[in-house]
Amino acid sequence: MVPDKRPSTDDRSATDTATTEVGSTSADFLAPGDDAPAELVDVLVYGLVGGIAGSVLSFVPFATVLGGAVAGYLCGGRSADALKTGTVAGVVMTLPFAVIVFALLFFLGFAGAPAEFGLIALAVVGLAAVYTLGSGIVGGYLGHYLRGQL
């Protein structure tokens, strides 16, 4: 019979007990296994998932922040990875809006709409893209923060 080699609770080192206390280490915002940077594939996949979630929840206020938070929470890694994932989610959430507006501008161009209308619409699309990207990035960081706290 082989003896059990698992450490008992009495064998924990002082560093293990220090990391379990609340607020005792600088790694409080990291979930287990999050000390390594996330891979690019993870950033893109979870950014896509967060972007789709934000687009589906578009009827909810601050859905872009929620989409970025989903992406940042799922990705893990470091906070820089969460910002990248939130950016990808923001781009994914911007695409449907931009496609719809550009399609409307294309069809209105054939209807004889004045050029000023197109310029104003492009400015609106630009501001909406900045808002969506920015709130996706903020959501990514918040999701990373929640991952470390929960």
TrEMBL record:
Record carries keyword tRNA-binding: no
Region feature (Disordered): 1-23
DNA repair keyword on record: no
Pfam annotation, one family: DUF5518
Transmembrane segments: 43-76, 88-111, 117-142
Record keywords: Membrane, Transmembrane, Transmembrane helix
Superkingdom, taxonomy of origin: Archaea
Residues in coiled coil: none
Biased composition (Basic and acidic residues): 1-14
Listed InterPro entries: DUF5518
Protein name as it appears in the record: DUF5518 domain-containing protein
Lineage, opening ranks: Archaea, Methanobacteriati, Methanobacteriota, Stenosarchaea group, Halobacteria
